[in-house]
Amino acid sequence: MENKRTGEVLRELRENSNQSVKDFYGGIISEHYGYRVETCRQQLSQVIFQQILDKHSVTLSEFEFIKNSYQLKESDYVVRDFVSVMLTSNVKELRLFAKNLAKESHPEQSYYKYFIEIALTRSRYLHQNQLEKMRKSMETIWNDLLKKEQWTYIELVVVSNLICVFDSDYRDSIVNRIFKSLNKYASYQESAKVRILAFRNYCEVLFLDHSYQKVRNFSKKILCEALKRQDGLLKCECEFQLCKLEWMQTWGQKKQISEKVSEILWVLKFMQQSSLERWMRNEWMQWVEQEIQHC
């Protein structure tokens, strides 16, 4: 199905609101201009187009959704599914995602191959904690994005999953750049979950490097940001990483820490974030078991 043209969507919005051309565009463009726009004989500047959307409380993303016949774009579905499967970190789901995406024939979409490579690499090495092998496997992707002064949203999604590639001296500045860039996309699509993914990936590498104080400092910093943003999901993730750290470094408060984790899991369940709740529950069980074996 072909996308509608801009003028066609504007006419649809006007007719749905039961307004005349004069009333719909009044104060922005003339009635004659409005007719020409709706019949696709006249184009709008970006400024005027945005003024029309603002007047009728229509966001740009909603306009694009309507323009695409009330469907997400294919790229939106791919990004959403990639973020979701990376958050759950289920080996079978990672491999299935890569397999299904590989069937799509979009050679012009370079991020498809990035997503496939990242998903397969995580499925191979994640639970074996083979950081060096993950790093080598994903270095070529980073080399493609290294020289860019600013990343697009999709590139940010990719880079958020490449944190294991960076050397410790370079890693902190890249992570700060990722979070600063994500601030620009604070209300865009799955950016809240991408933020969680970047935070989790960074903490994962810090734990493997035994940089425990950095885990604590960074988790507390991002927790403050999550509280300011009223971001419940990120708050849960920060508190969970702190619980992992406390469990590892504290001997006399295991019961209180377990109760805190149970509280976090309950919150996720209440928020209907079943996949995140399931991942966190499994991660906690593995973490506790691992610490017991080390005792």
From TrEMBL:
InterPro entries the UniProt entry points to: HTH-type_regulator_Rgg (IPR053163), Lambda_DNA-bd_dom_sf (IPR010982), TPR-like_helical_dom_sf (IPR011990), Transcription_activator_Rgg_C (IPR010057)
Domain HTH-type transcriptional regulator Rgg C-terminal, residue spans: 101-277
One MF term in the entry's GO annotations: DNA binding
Pfam family, one: Rgg_C
Range of residues in the leader sequence: none
Protein name: HTH-type transcriptional regulator Rgg C-terminal domain-containing protein
Organism: Listeria kieliensis
